[in-house]
Amino acid sequence: MKKLLLLCSSILVLGSVAQAAPCVSGSLDSYVALGAGGCEFEGLTFSNFQLLTVPFGATELPSINITVNPLMAGPMGGTGLEFALTVAAGAGSYLASSFQYDVSPFVIPVLTSVELTGAMAMGDGVVTALTIANGTALIALVDGFSSLPFSSSVIPAAMPFTVLTEIGVDGGPGGSASFTAASNRFSQVPEPSAWLLTATGLLAAGAISRRKA
Amino acid sequence: MKSIQSLVAAGAALLMLHPGPVFAANHREAPITAIDHKADITDVYAFVSYGAGTTPGTTPTHVTFIMGVDPLLEPGNGPTYFPFDNDILYELKIDNNHDAVEDITFQFRFQTEQRLPGVFTVYAGAGSGIGVPANQPNPPIGPTGTIIVPPQITTFDSPGLGQRQRYTVTMVKGGVSTVVTNGAPTYAVPANAGPRTMDYNALFTAGTYSYPNGIKTFAGTTDDAFWIDLGATFDTLNLRKAVLTPAEDASPTNTTPDFVSGYSVNSIAIEVPIEMLTKTGKKELASAPEATIGMWATTSRQRTTVRRAPLEAQNSGSWSQIQRMANPLVNELLIGVGSKNKFSMDQPKNDSQFASFLLDPLLARLLNAAFGITVPNAPRVDLLPLVQYTNPIPGAANPVADLLRLNTGVPATPLASAKRLGGAAGDPAGFPNGRRVYDDVTDIALRVVAGLLAGLSYPLGDGVNSNDTAYRTSFPYLGNAPDGRNRRHIDPGEAGCTAGLGAPCLP
After folding, report:
1. Threshold 0.90, pTM exceeds
2. What is the ipTM of this complex?
């Protein structure tokens, strides 16, 4: 009984605390090559990178030229990845990259964000970064009239937590657009129930340890 | 493998033809256009141009393309009526080398101006104008007799034409864009608000433009050229008429109500010299593969829209397709609801992906169940000629694709001898060799799905054999939009089932 209680407590504790492992800067292609094993950074595992078909009419940005940089958690947000490529599109040119990956472990809701940096557009050009995380869509957008380079939302946890990101650098019929990087960040947002779960696990583990002693 | 390809092709063929249990051309056929009805393509037509004086064997010189958008417009629905959408790119696409990819595109864009921003309605007019009376309230507008209601709208410069739309047409060929409408402004014909307000016919004539290169264009609100017993069809095939007697089949008389009667639609039309359409740049004999072209129409919006009330929404980015249409009834009746949006937004060259909807068409089984007729077994290879280029073009080499295919070398059939059932009645210039405004595609499609091309001939039809409005006999071939004051929808049981005349419709 005690062993069972200890096992359950351990699972509860481990389930609410992410594991850490290293990711390094590299091309999007190199991340795709990581496969299901992925890499780890600040307790999150990024895996199962896949390139997706770009929208009709778009020219695919070469994934070998897109650099993926791990992002540390900080004032700008949670742990994440940056997808960097300096590129410009003139009138009639629409460049895009579409890919997806999994992030784990998430057992409580995740504050997910998408952000554009170095994006500029003129006329009816537009730069977009669309992220669909666990079915919820976020969009960052910079066009000739608006600058909405950041979007975030608290999204329910899932295992796996699948993130689709599509970057569009679109000169439009008569404008232009340029782009430097887009990023996704993730930080878990404990709900009261999640805190209670964690605390229960810790208390149970502590109680068992004390009895053993 | 070959049999699988055949199966897929046959399925795709069914996709193209299967009229399903409902026949409304393509009005509101996909979830995406049930909401975005300004981008909803209702019908597409392509035919060798004809005229009142066309005689048998007249050498074809021009082809007319028409696309209707924005379905079932109630003519009296003021005060702003039915402008084309400035934010939509309307396109007619032509494939002339049989690969289901466009080689020539005609792009239509609209610009709207509000010339009477202080008036509550966009069209105003009466006779020679109405002046203010002596007892006008204070403060006075002006001396007695000062015009307060402008004269009847008779031209695009009439002061009462508050909402005025200009348009441009650009031809894209070989990567080169040429503005067809370069020069004088071209205006869209407005909705027919009523006989007091406007001389619609004069505007229609003025809104038909000819250019030095032989092209003609038209855009405006017109009669919906399509006809069908729509309500009975959508009441789960509760048809008033489905099997026609020989007399009914041979007559242009309607026995059931045309549910599209009295409604308008926004139409775009262009007439183009054949030499500008063929791959060889010249007129070709019907026996030459190069004589045959394929076409389809699309509507597109820019990728992003940012709404910033109270400012107007701002669009940016490249064009993203909302809908396409070629053969009638395909997306309406063949494609499952879960795939209709994808079909709408995809390209004809990819149509083999929709084959699963067509391998065993539900409509054929319904016809079998409802009327006890024998229909061909699946897969329906008999329908393949309708989704591939056929003789004289090698059939195996071209992709299965929903295109409206037209042999530009086949002369137009003189109006007096043209058949509403088109090719099904031996009229070589009718659907499915292109589509004319008066081709009864509902009845044709019913019969083809029932097995006409497999040698099974049944006199199927919905009982609506003709339109409620007369078609023009020259470009753009469309009828006048019903006027908002006097429009008439012909209902079940109502007298005058055929264009308001003759016997009543079946109840």
Report:
1. no
2. 0.73
